[in-house]
Specification:
alpha/beta, 7-stranded mixed β-sheet, 17% strand, globular
Length: 210
């Protein structure tokens, strides 16, 4: 593991392995760069693979804000500090939104969004329906139940491995989901349209569920 400090003074943990075109990996909410471990050795045979713990996750420091633009700016600052150029940015779940925000504001050669629809209205309804529980003492149970419903056909050992990596901080999750909790549907849609409309590079979205 290595760490770098963002212009805001936030310590960001990362691993950089391999040589070749730059490939940036951004994990899902409450998870860490370790989520990608099974894939990194093969990817690193022909890429410079940068796996990042975004702020408030894994071994990176907490911060005052957890919006996707701020997370993307942290990753972009790290990419620049490491001398990587024109990366392909891959994000899973929350990381898919961060990857989209990255492409909207920072140079890259493309985005691969894994399993994160950027049409957030339906997910907003789900999160708002559980808002009182998320803000209360039942937070841990709600988050565990949510992830238990989403792992699909992963082998049991892989489900356990990923679960062990999670750092379910109530402050961080509520910060990440603040737009879902605080904006009305029209304003949320407008935010997404503005972000997506700023992306001018190839964008591939892969989904395991409808």
């Amino acid at each position: 593991m290595a760490t770098a400090t963002t212009p805001e003074g936030i310590a960001i943990a990362y691993d950089l392995v391999g040589d070749g075109p730059a490939l940036v990996l951004i994990h899902g909410i409450t998870e860490s760069r370790r989520t990608w471990d099974p894939l990194v050795p093969e990817l690193a045979t022909d890429h410079a693979v940068l796996a990042v713990d975004v702020r408030g996750h894994g071994e990176s420091a907490d911060a005052d804000a957890y919006d996707s633009a701020a997370m993307a700016a942290d990753v972009a600052a790290l990419v620049g500090e490491l001398g990587l150029v024109d990366p392909l940015v891959v994000g899973h779940s929350m990381g898919g939104i961060v990857a989209t925000a990255y492409a909207a504001a920072h140079p890259c050669r493309g985005v691969l969004n894994v399993d994160q629809s950027i049409a957030l209205g339906d997910f907003q309804e789900l999160v708002r329906g559980a808002e009182d529980l998320l803000r209360g003492d039942a937070f841990g149970e709600v988050i565990t139940s949510l992830f238990d419903s989403m792992h699909g056909p992963l082998p049991a050992d892989e489900v356990a491995r990923v679960a062990a990596l999670r750092r379910p901080s109530q402050e961080v999750v509520l910060g990440v989901w603040a737009p879902l909790l605080e904006l009305d549907r029209a304003d949320l849609d407008a935010l997404v349209v503005a972000m997506a409309g700023a992306v001018q590079v190839p964008y591939l979205s892969l989904h395991g569920m409808d």
